[in-house]
Amino acid sequence: PDLPEINDSVGRAMDALGALRYRKLLARVVWPACVTGCMVSEDKQNAFRNLVAVECFAQGVLGTLLQAHEIIEDCWKEREAGTGICEWFSAMKSIELHLPL
Fold it and tell me: Could you say which of 21, 36, 46, 84 has the lowest number of CB atoms within 10 Å?
């Protein structure tokens, strides 16, 4: 996430997610939201939480979106632990998630 190209792509994806008229539609784009969230830089994590997680949970959108949130949070924890690298697949494995998004 520290590469400018990735940061730009993540920013555009966050803009697209934020442009959704109804937040419940995020349940239809779980996979792109999950990949985007995993690639969010540390300085944008709270903005991503506010954009996706907080609003969706408040409106009762759960299921695979909740699982995607767990994957994203696990990726962020791995990066904070000093590995610097987080792959969504390893995050799914570490939280013992075996369901497709």
Answer: 21
* pTM confidence score: 0.77
Joined tokens for residue 90: 């390893």
Rounded to an integer, what distance in angstroms lies between the CA atom of residue 55 and that of residue 5? 27
CA distance 16 to 10: 10
Burial degree of 75 (CB within 10 A; 0-12, 13-18, 19+): buried
| Interval 22-59: pLDDT, tens | 877 877 888 888 889 988 999 999 999 888 765 566 55
Q: Is the dihedral of CA 25, 26, 31, 36 positive or negative?
A: positive
Write a three-state SS string for the chain.
Answer: CCCHHHHHHHHHHHHHHHCCCCHHHHHHCHHHHHHHHHHCCHHHHHHHHHHHHHHHHHCCCCCHHHHHHHHHHHHHHHHHCCCCCCCHHHHHHHCCCCCCC
